[in-house]
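Methods — Computational structure assignment.
A single polypeptide chain was analysed. Its primary sequence is given first, followed by the predicted tertiary structure written as structure tokens.
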Amino acid sequence: MGRCLYTGPFNFRRGLCAPFCLVIGMGTLIAVLIVAKLKLVTAQLAVPHDSSPVRHLLNTFSKRN
């Protein structure tokens, strides 16, 4: 039987190695996606705007579609 990276309070022989590794893998994937998307958001925020945020908000709420 292979050695698990998880050495917490539960022993890997109880079958907790696979779920632990799955959680770590999914968390890493989600973190990479968040970082990739945040680069796009920060690039959008760096562009200067010619109208005020309040005018934009009022214009958005005045549209019916």
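Note: The chain has one domain: 12-62.
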